[in-house]
Design a protein that fits this description.
- Pfam families: DUF2383.
- This is DUF2383 domain-containing protein.
- Helix content is about 80%, strand content about 0%.
- It is built from 5 helices and no strands.
- The protein has about 140 residues and is an all-alpha fold.
- The protein has a single domain, classed as Ferritin (Up-down Bundle), CATH 1.20.1260.10.
C-alpha cells in the first residue's frame, strides 16, 4: 500500500484526536474541582494524548509529516461549538462527551480508515477504537 495513501487518513485521525483533547480541556474547565468526573476526564484526555503520540509515530514510520493540531476545519468546529453549545452541569457535559466520542471519535474513524490502511496501521487504529469504546461505556455508566 502506498505510504502517502496511508498517512493521509492517519493524519485526519490525528487531527480528530487533537479535537478530542481540546474538547476534554473545555469539559474539565467546566467541571467543579470536587467532581469525581473531573479526574476521570483528565485520564480520558491523557489517553487521547497518548493516541496522538502513537499516530504521530506511525505517520513518521511511514515517512509522513504528522499534523500538529486539529486543522482549520477542526478549529472552526471548535469555535462554533464554544459559541453555541455550552454544556451546563455534569449530565450535559456527559452527554456532549458521549456524542463526541461516539460520533467523532468512533463512527467517523471507522468511516475514515475503511480499506485505506496497511495491517500495522489498522491494528493501531483498532487499539484506539477499543479504548474509545471503553470511554463511551464509562461515560454512559456515569450518565445513568
Amino acid at each position: 500500500m502506498e505510504e502517502q495513501k496511508v498517512t493521509k487518513p492517519l493524519n485526519k485521525l490525528l487531527q480528530g484526536q487533537y479535537m478530542g483533547i481540546h474538547s476534554y480541556e473545555e469539559f474539565i474547565k467546566n467541571l467543579d474541582d470536587a467532581s469525581p468526573l473531573r479526574s476521570r476526564f483528565i485520564m480520558i484526555q491523557k489517553d487521547l494524548k497518548h493516541h496522538a503520540e502513537l499516530l504521530s509515530e506511525r505517520i513518521q514510520e511511514l515517512h509522513g509529516t504528522p499534523a500538529t493540531s486539529e486543522g482549520v476545519i477542526g478549529k472552526i468546529e471548535q469555535f462554533i461549538s464554544q459559541i453555541f453549545d455550552h454544556p451546563q452541569g455534569e449530565k450535559d457535559i456527559l452527554k456532549h462527551a458521549i456524542k463526541g466520542e461516539n460520533l467523532y471519535g468512533i463512527k467517523m474513524t471507522e468511516n475514515l480508515v475503511r480499506d485505506k490502511l496497511d495491517e500495522k496501521s489498522m491494528s493501531l487504529v483498532h487499539q484506539i477504537l477499543d479504548n474509545q469504546r471503553e470511554h463511551v461505556d464509562y461515560l454512559k455508566s456515569e450518565l445513568h
